[in-house]
From TrEMBL:
The lineage of its organism: Bacteria, Pseudomonadati, Planctomycetota, Planctomycetia, Pirellulales. The keyword Signal applies. It comes from the Bacteria. The keyword Thylakoid does not apply. Residues 1-26 form the signal peptide. This is Thiol-disulfide oxidoreductase. InterPro entries: AhpC/TSA (IPR000866), PRX-like1 (IPR047262), Thioredoxin-like_sf (IPR036249), Thioredoxin_CS (IPR017937), Thioredoxin_domain (IPR013766). GO terms for molecular function: antioxidant activity; oxidoreductase activity.
């Protein structure tokens, strides 16, 4: 190979790597420096409007907070973000929140503290549920704004003066789940509103890393890995099942009764598998109970295998249907599908006497598990 050919070869390779970076190479961004001008943006908001810097031109100060739906740290700060907006909007401070994450780059097991992902539609739900009275913008499609600002984690605060020069960047305060000792963003606001220099212009951030689009492949790889897990179906007696569901545990148990001949039941299994993958790193487990006859065990196991349901799966060795009803929940009237959430004490805390709404069920699960580390502990 001649020297020219060799150089040409590596030039082509470099171009290909630049255009299609391998997933193992993490996207590196540089956080905006103090004194830098605010990068402009044109982003859709959950209220149906499109926003840019000019929409906040009348504000004395502009606070841009990058946050998201799924991150437990970001969730822990939502009340404080709303409080900042309430307390400073009449003092000439405009606050805007931006979600930097590519929703397709978020793994299911990163959603363990949330009933919502980081899609634009779910952002609308989150804003409505939490009563956001400030713009909540979506940058997950191109992430150009997030790269320009150099977002490291959620939440990440950028405070700009009247000339839209960066005067503070970092955290909201020094603790997400305990009373903070250092109110860094608030201190910066007060100093700028008083015409002073910001004493501490930069602080470290703490939270979930930005989900750049180069993590999409990792998210897909995790799905492929989980799909390789074995879906095992075990036979159990009514007495054993009743004990399994009512005894004290260190976990919440989501129990779903289904059958191969019940189309809505089979249709729900994919959503149940998603919940299993989202919440199983927390004190949670999914238990499915097949109402099929023992003679149909192979068919039931085949369905579970096709749906990649690697949860705890039982087939009841019962003499009568009443044995099944009593073993699962005496309050069950018999219709399929049937779903219950059982707390660690063995008490049913939620019942669904029909097909479930996946979004509502995930919300129930998260409300019982707790959305933040503080609630969990």
């Amino acid at each position: 190979m001649t020297r020219c050919t060799y150089l040409a070869h590596w030039l082509v390779l470099a171009i290909l790597l630049f255009a299609n970076p391998p997933s193992s190479i993490a996207l590196e961004v540089e956080t905006l420096k103090i004194g830098a001008a605010a990068p402009d943006f044109e982003l859709p908001g959950v209220d149906g409007k499109t926003y840019s810097l000019s929409d906040f031109a009348d504000a004395k100060l502009l606070m841009v907070i990058f946050t998201c739906n799924h991150c437990p740290t970001a969730q822990a700060y939502e009340a404080r973000i709303k409080q900042l907006n309430d307390q400073y909007q009449d003092r000439g401070v405009a606050l805007v929140a931006i979600s930097p994450n590519d929703p397709l780059a978020v793994r299911l097991d990163e959603l363990g503290y949330s009933d919502l992902n980081d899609s634009f539609e779910d952002m609308k739900t989150r804003a409505q549920d939490e009563g956001f009275e400030f713009p909540y913008l979506y940058d997950g499609e191109t992430q150009e704004t997030s790269r320009a600002y150099g977002v490291r984690a959620t939440p990440h605060v950028y405070l700009f003066d009247a000339e839209r020069k960066l005067r503070y960047v970092g955290r909201i305060d020094d603790n997400d789940v305990k009373p903070p000792a250092s109110h860094d963003a608030r201190n910066a606001l007060e100093e700028l509103l008083s015409g002073k220099e910001v004493t501490v212009p930069t602080t470290r951030v703490f939270g979930c890393s930005t989900k750049w689009s180069d993590k999409r492949e990792s998210a897909q790889e995790s799905l492929a890995q989980w799909n390789q897990e074995e879906a095992e179906l075990k036979t159990i007696t009514p007495e054993e099942l009743h004990t399994r569901l009512t005894q004290k545990s260190d976990k919440y148990r989501l129990v779903n009764v289904w059958a191969t001949w019940c189309a809505p039941c089979v249709g729900e299994l994919e959503e149940l598998v998603t919940m299993h993958r989202m919440y199983r790193k927390r004190p949670f487990e999914l238990i499915t109970v097949s109402a099929d006859e023992l003679s149909n065990a192979k068919a039931a196991e085949k369905v579970l295998d096709e749906k990649h349901c690697s949860a705890t799966n039982y087939l009841l060795d019962a003499q009568t249907r009443d044995d099944l009803f009593e073993a699962v929940d005496p309050a069950w009237q018999g219709a399929l599908p049937y779903t219950v959430l059982i707390d660690p004490d063995g008490t049913v805390v939620h019942r669904i006497h029909d097909s479930f709404d996946a979004a509502k069920l995930k919300r129930v699960i998260v409300e019982h598990l707790g959305r933040t580390y503080a609630e969990q502990n």
